[in-house]
Write a structure and sequence with these properties.
Length: 509
C-alpha cells in the first residue's frame, strides 16, 4: 500500500519540482535538479552492469552525492548499502565481499580505504566523488555524459529489499540489516510524525547519514518533500553557523555532539539559532543536566529515542516538549507502529515473551513492528535474535508506575560482584552528572574476593578532580547503591566510542 521509494520520490518531484531538496556548501539543489542527477547516475550504474537486486555501496560523507546515490539505487531496484566510513578498511571490505557489491561510490578523501578495497574486489566498479581520482576508479563527473531521462522502468514491489544499514561492529564484524521499500518508507513516516514535520521544514544530520537513525532522518525529509542541509565533515561551530545560515528547524545529533554544540554556542555568542526547534538524538540515555543545557543554550527541545538497527526505526521516544520534566531522563514510551514489552530477563531468546516483568521493575525489552528485518543481508550464519515476531535486543530496562522506560544496560555488559548484578551504563549515567566529569566508562576488573569489582575510566573537565572526590560523590548520593560504586578510578584523556556515541566495549576491554 505504501509503494516504493522510487514512486514516492517521483511523486515528490512531480508535486514540488522547484522546492529545495539539498543544500551543500554554496550549492542548492531542487527536487527537479536532484531527479535529473539521480537519472544520470542510474544510467551510469546500468553501464557498469548494475541491475535490479544488485547491491551498490555508499561510502560517503554527508554530501549531495549521497542523496543522488541512494535514490539512483531506488530507481533501478538495486539495494543501497550504507557503509560507515569510520570503520576500518577491513570491516568495509568484509561488507563489500559479503554483499558482492556491483559498484561503490566513495569520496576522494576516502581514497586510501577505496585503494585497499580495489586490490581484491575486481568484481566491483569504483566511482570517486571529487578528486584526485585514484587509479582504477571512475570519476563521478562522468555522470554528466549520461541522459537525464528516466532509466528503464524496473518491476519493483513494496516488499523488495531497497537498503542495507550495518550494525556498528563493536562486538564483532558489522552485520547488514536489509529493509524493504515498505519498511523504509514507514520509518520515514514515523520520523515525520515524531518530529512534526511538513515540507516547510529544513533538517540537518550531524551524524553520518550512512548510519541507521540518520538514514531514516534523511528519508523522512524526502518522504515529506522538505529540504535538508548536508554538512560534509562535522565540526560543532561549523554546524551552528549552518543552522543559522539555512534556518535549520531540526537536527539529528548524538549525545557527544550535543555537548559540543552547547560548548561551541557559548564561544560563538551572537549566532542566531532561533529557527532550531528540535534536536533528535539516540544511542544512550540523556542526563537532565545536558537536556537543560541544550534547552537553555540552543533554545530548542530534544527528542531522545531508543532503537535498534534491526528494527529500522525508533522503538521508544521521549520529547522534552511533550513529557513531564521528571520523565526526561527516560527513553519514553513506545513510538508509532511499535509493540513493546518488558519481560522477565532470561538467557537470550529463551525468555518467554508472555512472562512480563513486574511494573514498576526491571526486565528485558523486546519489540515487534512492521519495519523489523527478518534476516541479515547476505549473512546466512548470523541469526537474528527474534522469536514469534518479537526482537530481543538484550537490553535491560526499568519501567516506572506510569509506563515510562529507563535504560539500564545490555545483558552482555553485566558485572557480577559479590553475587550482585551491576550494569555499567547505570553507573556511567550517574557519574556523567558530576560537573567535573566530561566523559566516563565503566567496566569490571577481576578480583579474588569479589569476583569482579567496578572500575571507572574518567575524562576530567577539571584537573582538580581526584579519585577521592569521585568516591565522595558516590557515597553522598542516594541515587547509587554503595555496592555499585567504582572501587578503582583511572583518569584518561579519551574513551573509545562508536559513531553513535556509544562506548565501544570491545575496545574498552
Amino acid at each position: 500500500m505504501l509503494g516504493t521509494l522510487r514512486d514516492n520520490f517521483a511523486g515528490t518531484v512531480s508535486r514540488w519540482s522547484d522546492r529545495t531538496a539539498i543544500i551543500a556548501g554554496d550549492r542548492t539543489t531542487t527536487y527537479g535538479q536532484l531527479n535529473a542527477s539521480v537519472n544520470r547516475l542510474a544510467h551510469f550504474l546500468i553501464r557498469l552492469g548494475v541491475r535490479k537486486g544488485d547491491a551498490v555501496g555508499l561510502l560517503l560523507h554527508n554530501c549531495t552525492e549521497f542523496a543522488i546515490g541512494f535514490l539512483a539505487c531506488q530507481k533501478l531496484g538495486a539495494v543501497s548499502s550504507c557503509l560507515n566510513y569510520r570503520l576500518s578498511s577491513a570491516s568495509v571490505g568484509f561488507a563489500v565481499h559479503q554483499e558482492k557489491l556491483k559498484a561503490l561510490l566513495f569520496n576522494a578523501e576516502l581514497s586510501a580505504t577505496a585503494a585497499d578495497l580495489m586490490k581484491d574486489a575486481g568484481f566491483c566498479g569504483f566511482i570517486c566523488v571529487g578528486g584526485p581520482v585514484p587509479a582504477g576508479a571512475r570519476s563521478f563527473d562522468e555522470c554528466a555524459g549520461f541522459p537525464a531521462t528516466e532509466p528503464p522502468l524496473a518491476d519493483i514491489k513494496a516488499s523488495d529489499l531497497c537498503n542495507v544499514i550495518h550494525t556498528s561492529g563493536t562486538t564483532g564484524r558489522p552485520k547488514g540489516a536489509a529493509f524493504t521499500n515498505e519498511a523504509q518508507i514507514l520509518s520515514g513516516i514515523q520520523y515525520c510524525l515524531e518530529m512534526g514535520l511538513d515540507r516547510g521544514h529544513v533538517g540537518m544530520s550531524l551524524a553520518p547519514v550512512v548510519i541507521g537513525a540518520a538514514t531514516n532522518f534523511f528519508v523522512a525529509y524526502v518522504v515529506i518533500g522538505a529540504a535538508q542541509v548536508m554538512t560534509g565533515e562535522y565540526e560543532a561551530k561549523k554546524a551552528l553557523r549552518l543552522i543559522a545560515r539555512h534556518k535549520v528547524t531540526e537536527s539529528f545529533a548524538v549525545p557527544t555532539q550535543m555537548y559540543q554544540l552547547t560548548e561551541a554556542r557559548a564561544q560563538l555568542g551572537d549566532v542566531d539559532l532561533t529557527s532550531l526547534r528540535l534536536i533528535r538524538s539516540g544511542g544512550s540515555p540523556l542526563p537532565m543536566t545536558l537536556l537543560q543545557r541544550v534547552r537553555g543554550m540552543l533554545g530548542c527541545e530534544v527528542i531522545n529515542t531508543y532503537g535498534t538497527t534491526e528494527s529500522c526505526t525508533a522503538i521508544t521516544t521521549c520529547h522534552t516538549g511533550m513529557e513531564p520534566q521528571e520523565k526526561w531522563e527516560s527513553i519514553g514510551k513506545p513510538s508509532y507502529f511499535q509493540d513493546v514489552r518488558v519481560i522477565q530477563a532470561g538467557d537470550g531468546m529463551q525468555a518467554n515473551p508472555d512472562e512480563l516483568a513486574p511494573v514498576p521493575g526491571e526486565g528485558q525489552l523486546i519489540n515487534r513492528g512492521p519495519q523489523s528485518v527478518t534476516a541479515y543481508y547476505c549473512t546466512p550464519d548470523e541469526k537474528l535474535r527474534a522469536r514469534d515476531g518479537w526482537q530481543y535486543a538484550r537490553d535491560i530496562v526499568r519501567v516506572d508506575g506510569e509506563g515510562y522506560i529507563y535504560p539500564v544496560d545490555r545483558i552482555d555488559n553485566v558485572i557480577i560482584s559479590g553475587g550482585e548484578n551491576i550494569y555499567p551504563q547505570e553507573i556511567e549515567f550517574f557519574l556523567s552528572k558530576h560537573p567535573s566529569i566530561a566523559d566516563v566508562a565503566v567496566c569490571g576488573v577481576a578480583d579474588e574476593k569479589w569476583g569482579n569489582v567496578v572500575k571507572a575510566l574518567i575524562v576530567r573537565r577539571s584537573a582538580c578532580l581526584s579519585a577521592e572526590d569521585v568516591d565522595r560523590y558516590c557515597l553522598e548520593s542516594n541515587e547509587l547503591s554503595r555496592y555499585k560504586r567504582p572501587r578503582i578510578i583511572q583518569f584518561v584523556d579519551a574513551l573509545p566510542r562508536n559513531v553513535l556515541g556509544k562506548i565501544d566495549r570491545t575496545a574498552l576491554r
